[in-house]
Amino acid sequence: MTTLPYVSGFSAHTPANVLTNKDLEAFVDTNDEWIRTRTGIHERRKAPDGVANADLAAEAARGALALSGCPAESITHIVVVTCSPDVLCPSTACQVAGRLGLRARVAIDVNAACTGFVSGLDVARGFLATQKKARVLLIASETLSRFCDWADRTTCVLFGDGAGAVILSNEAIQPGGLHARLHDVRHAADGSGGDLLHFGGRYTNPGSITPSDVFGKEYFIQMNGREVFKHAVRSMTEACQEVLHDNNLTIADIDLFVPHQANLRIIEAVGSRLNVKPEQLFINLQKYGNTSAASIPIALAEAREEGRLKPGAKVLLTSFGGGFTWGAALLIFDE
Questions:
Q1: Choice among 77, 179, 187, 260 that is catalytic
Q2: In the chain, how long is the greatest CA-to-CA distance?
Q3: Quick one: pLDDT at residue 1?
Q4: Which of 21, 111, 284, 290 is catalytic?
Q5: Is residue 55, in this structure, part of any structural domain at all?
Q6: Which of 114, 148, 156, 240 is catalytic?
Q7: What mean pLDDT is reported for the chain?
Q8: Across residues 176-195, what is the average pLDDT?
Q9: Residue 208 pLDDT exceeds 80
Q10: CATH number, domain containing residue 289
């Protein structure tokens, strides 16, 4: 019988700098009411110049280590999920290892866009399946504000910065402490939708660049919101239904539903199709906006702080991101 991995440490770190909808009115053709009614977002966090993605990741990691009672030196694998790294090389995971003073560990980045945390759970599960004594530090960290076109009101109002982290292991690190078991996780992709959400370079016409080149709009987030909405709602709903069915559960059995915090309309549409009750749903995008892969672990950390991660609780996660990618996972907390 395969051991179900333990998940503990539920930690988050977000920049102190708050960018409200009112702040955006000063330099974007938008207003607070327009943003709230279309997205549900009131404010978001923005990393200041000089604060790296890896800095946010390392702070979230330190929190997870402390909350789980896991000594940093016992970590064998560092997995960072991000689509907004500071640099292409070295990896964000290697930078985090350096900040934590860890050497001779596995350190890799995973890019599945907003689905990254769900995908990262599966990557970590794979390490644990082959290495009994492994302890995996899984971090989701994003600085998407640096890829926003601040003249494009359809995208720049959506995104924020932040990081979240958990520890996965084959044994309870802190017996009696707060931890869940990872009962199921699955994720998938459809590359045919890549042109509907992308950033960071020439998607349709790749080629060489030179030091004299000036970044154009292709560097910043490009999104067909209407099409992304349709794909996101369908894919997240189906992923959740599959996980529930395969684990002999219904949505009524779920104590907490934590979807990717992308847009309130998407969350409400998925919730409606799954018949999620208001008391089951966790939403915090009003404070952080869309933090991509970091949104679910940030939400889990806040749910922990609010006492909503309780012994015996069944927690369903789901996400959707550029690629397209999507997935769902089931956490059940030990009694």
A1: 260
A2: 60
A3: 39
A4: 290
A5: yes
A6: 114
A7: 94
A8: 93
A9: no
A10: 3.40.47.10
Q: What value does the mean pLDDT take over residues 219-232?
A: 92
- Percentage of the residues of the chain whose pLDDT score is greater than 90: 86
Residues 169 and 187 in one domain: no
Query: 81-106 pLDDT, tens per residue?
Result: 999 999 999 999 999 999 999 998 99
Which single residue is written with the structure tokens 């008391």? 279
Residue 215 has pLDDT above 90, yes or no: no
Report yes or no on 209 lying in a domain. no
How sure is the predictor about 2, in pLDDT bands with cuts at 50, 70 and 90? low
Is 260 marked active-site?
yes
Q: Would you call 114 a catalytic residue per the annotation? A: yes
Range of the domain at 140: 6-177
